[in-house]
Design goal:
mainly alpha; 2 domains; three-stranded antiparallel sheet; 2 helices; transmembrane; coiled coil
Amino acid sequence: MERDPTEAPELYCACGNRLRSQVSRTPRNYLRRYYACRVCHTWIWEDVLYRFVEAMVFYTHSSTISRLQDELNEARISLAEKDSKIDNLERILEECGGSCSQDTRSKNSLCYFVCKIAILLALAALWFAY
């Protein structure tokens, strides 16, 4: 049941009937608006309902912001862990390059190839770990 987003939503009673907006005529609450059910005679002041709705909107927004902040912090921690692992892999690559003799450090050497493959495998494992 899709509703038109340009129309104001209707308010329903717990019994399932639509609440009607009415105006109080009593001396104590003269012209104060309220919603009432014509079937079970339940009613609520409009201003009380609005305060509750505003409080719920604030509560929902606050919890959403809190959840997003938690997710952002988790992402920052994950990024820091990945950066640390990449730094370690770069250090290993440098050590591997240093352990090869000077004449075998060319890009065609087996030592260079093995180091690059090891780094690529480690990076792939790091990528798919998350």
